[in-house]
Structure formats: structure tokens, C-alpha cells
Write a structure and sequence with these properties.
The structure is a single chain. About 10% of the residues lie in helices and about 45% in strands. With about 375 residues, the chain is mostly beta strands. The chain has three domains: about 90 residues, Immunoglobulin-like, CATH 2.60.40; about 80 residues, Immunoglobulins (Immunoglobulin-like), CATH 2.60.40.10; about 140 residues, Jelly Rolls, CATH 2.60.120. The strands form six sheets. It has a five-stranded antiparallel beta sheet with strand order 15-18-23-20-21, with no helix packed on it. The protein has a five-stranded antiparallel beta sheet with strand order 16-17-24-19-22, with no helix packed on it. The N and C termini lie far apart (about 140 Å). The relative contact order is 0.10.
Amino acid sequence: MKNIKLIFGLLFLLAVTINCTVDEGIDSDLSFLDSATSSNLDKIFDISNDNSGNVKITPIGTGVTSFKVVYGHGTGANASATVSPGSSTTYAYPEGNYTVSITASDVAGKQITTTYPLAVTYRAPENLNFTTTISLYTVKVSATALYAKSFLVYFGDVANEVGTPLAVGATTPVHTYAVGGAYNVKVVALSGGVAKTESVKSIIIFDPLAFPYTCELASQNYLAGGTFGGVNYSIVANPFPTGLNTSSKVAKFEKPVNAEEWAGTWKPLDIPIDLSTGTKIKMLVYATEVGKRVGLELQASTNGAPNTAIFVATTVANQWEELVFDTTTITAIPAGAKYKQFNINYNRPNRGLGEVIYLDNFRITN
């Protein structure tokens, strides 16, 4: 009997001892919260620097069964998360200042809430580049930049312009200019916050290339097309502003030594040569020799006319003269033919001898 009483007494004493040990242990385990201040925010917050706004939040402490993290932003279920000890939660913040609340719970149901300040600042985009794709009066813009959330594009043709939004990896809708000219296109890379980066590029919008071809208008791309066979073609100041041609600019055609006999330059036209408005094509020519033939080739008909060539020889040297290319002398050219390209060559069928001639004021007449 005495043995039984002794056993029950020991069990009671053990139970009391365990109960006291658990209560005291839980109280002391939460003492970490008293020191969870700004000094350990770097352990709690891992803030991304790629302008995603992502902040990884890792509550710290011992003796805790769970944490409730209230982000200080958002609504409903998305405004908070429950996190197990040793785990993290990630939230995407807009740029700004926030107060994050973390509530720690222990096995006994005791809770302690601590708040932490959080500042999220986006970095300015870097390595901004943009490209323009131009076709006559229209342009499209695409852009890239590190850490950019989006872009704004300013085409530079109206006062108080509102930027056109441009998403990363996208291209703007086609923008149409009213007239040709030089325009400054500006692209602003947005970080998603206050920081931004911008770049400006000057572009030229050319008026449609067409006859008359005068070499004078800044809005005309007289160098459209190219050359073949080794010749050179450029727009220069008129070296001989006398006689029939006192204009300020002319085309310079060079046929270097050993350039191909068929060498020349080709010009694509935005508005075709329309022979229904005139059957003669005239141009001013300055050559240093008499009897050398200037060739005019008509190509790329829009109404089925065949490609053809007309040759007219120079008649004077070292002065401007007007050469007339009469399309009625070529029976293969039907009435009303239209051509979207013309070529110029010189002194066929001979290879280049170093000749230089000047050309200007191509036009259609009757």
C-alpha cells in the first residue's frame, strides 16, 4: 500500500514539473521578437534589383509554429500569406514605401505581431536602344533596354505630343507623317517607378521620289537605289552654275577606269513615270566630250510595258545642254506606259575611262 502511494506521488510531481517546463520554454522562445528591429531587416527582406518589384520575405525566430505575413499592399487573400518556420513568401511590389506586419504563433496559441518598414525603389533602365523602320511617310519603332517595364515613343511631329505606349518586345503601330522632313524620334524607357531613361534619334522622312528629279529638295531621297558595274553616283554642289543650269545641286556620275561597259545607276520611283502625260524625257547634262552616249533605261512597268533603253549622244563639251529622250522612237513602248524605275549609264559599249558627267532636272514633256 505504501509502495502504491509512493508511485502516485512521484507521477504527480513529474506531471507538475513537465507542465512548468513547457510553459516557461514557450515564453522564452518568443523573446527573439524583442530584438527583431531594423538591424536585421536584411535577414527578413531580400529585395530584387531587376525592377520586378519582387521581395522575398523570410520571417525569423525559434519556437514558432507559423508566421502570418501581411504585405502592406494588395487586398483580400492576396494581401497576406502564412509561412512555416524556415520558409519564405515572395510578393511583387510597386515602387513605394510599405509597412510589413509579421505575426508569430507558438504551440500554445500565443501570438506576437511586429511591423517592419519596407522601401522598394526601381532602378533606371540601362542600355536603351531603338530601331525605326521607315517606308515613305510611315515609321514603326521597336526598343530594348535592361530593366525596362515598358516604353513611351514620341514621333516628334506634333506639339505637346502624348507618348505612344510600347510594350517590351513589341513594335508600335504604324505612324504616318503628314509631310517629309527631319524629325526627332524620342523613346523613354520606363522602370515601373520614378526612374526612367530616354534616347533621341533623328530620322528623315522623304517625300515620294518622282519626276521632276531636280536634286534640290532636302525631302527627296535622290540617292535611293544604287549603282552597279563599278560606277559612283552622288549629289554635289553644282560645279558649273552657268548657262542652262544655275541650280545649287546636281548629280555626279563617275565611270572609273575599267568599270564595266554596262555599269550604271538605278533609281526606284515611288510615283511611276507616266508616258500618258508626255512622251519625251529631258535632262540637263554636263560632259567633257562630244559624241558620248548617255543611256536612259526604263524598267519595272506597272502596266505591262517592256523594259527598254534609249541612247542620246552629247553634242557640246564643257557646258550644260539639254538631252531629249523621245520614247516614241521605240516602237516597243506602248502608249501610256508607266515605269517605276530608271537607269542611267554612259559611253556604252566601252569600259570606264575615268569619265565624269553631271546630270540634273529629269522631267517629262511632250
